[in-house]
Amino acid sequence: MERSQIISQLEKINSSNNTVEIFLLGQPEISDGKLTVQFYKARLQENIPSEIVNLFYPVIQKKVLKKEYTVKLYDPALMPDTEVIWELNSNDVPFYVFFNDLLSTKTDIEWYTNELLPYEDIWAYWIKVYSNGISFYIIKKVTPSKVIKTGGKLALIFDSEIFKRLSDDILTMDGSFDAIYFNQVLIFENKQNFEKALLYTEVKQSVAEDTLDKIGDIGFIENIDQVKDFLKDDYHSISKLNKIKGKPYFKALTFASCTRIIKEYNVDVEIDETKQQFNITSKQQAKYFIKVLNDDYLKSEMTNYKYSANSKEDI
To answer: Which of 145, 167, 225, 255 lies in the 20 to 30 Å Cα band around 102?
Structure first.
């Protein structure tokens, strides 16, 4: 999508004719392979719909409309040096599809109350803005800092010029967002925030584990289960693993080709020539080996110097 198209679409959020609905989600749960999420519709005061737009639209203007950036298709392993807004087809995001289907098919959504879902248990909110058949979602994962609780050091607030003690807990919104949906596309600025808000971290983890299983099937890693354990919480390595399986050379990987790179670039990975296996004994070595598999050890065309690349773009 061109930047001009994003701008023209998002400007429609700032219409006085828009209707606004807010959906509050509890923490999604996966049991026996089935995903469930508790969610409710929030009641709004009469003037709040326009106030919600007035809260979010200035942030949207600042981050997406007025700023210069390149629009890029979401790539979990790419870390561009320039300003980027990411885009991803909403059908490629399982949690978006799942929750959007729930909203589309459930006809008796309960109204939110604090008893049904305490503020501190709210996981995310989805704000639906729509008019004349055009719909947007503004999606935000709720962090603990958004809930001000009675008691403790955050219980006092200024009301006019007087400090007062809160009588009730408060859930706050500040206009920030993790993703915006329109025209079958999700756009976002911060990949990590997007992945948390739409459970994409879990998707990436699953794909990464499948890739490690495929690497384990090749048979040249002595302790593949330990390598999985080393990398299970390493965000950057998981991103790289999600790219590796799609590389043309993946099915042709051999002990000899990896050994050549490890030796030529002096990579800190132990090689057992007799067994023709790599013995990876630390998280750091596991990360180095993923870089080998991701073709991150390169020689400069300009200087013939050898480098370890943190990110690459195809040309």
So the answer is: 145
Structure pTM? 0.74
pLDDT in tens, 46-62: 888 889 999 999 999 99
The token pair at 284 is 């750091």
Compute the radius of gyration of the chain from its Cα atoms: 24
Banded pLDDT at 313 (limits 50, 70, 90)? low
| Contact between 292 and 309 (Cβ < 8 Å) | no
Q: How far apart are CA 86 and CA 72, in angstroms?
A: 5
> Which letter, b or e, does each residue of 209-223 get, where b requires 16 or more Cβ atoms within 10 Å of its Cβ?
eebbeebeeeebbbb
d(CA 187, CA 85): 7
Helix %, strand %, coil % for the chain, to 5? 40, 25, 35
Instruction: Of 312, 309, 289, 290, give the one whose Cα is nearest residue 298.
Output: 309
Averaged pLDDT, 26-37: 85
Q: Is the dihedral of CA 67, 71, 77, 82 positive or negative?
A: negative
> Residue 107: exposed, middle, or buried by beta-carbon count in 10 A (0-12, 13-18, 19+)?
exposed
Residue 6 backbone phi and psi in degrees, to 5: -60, -45
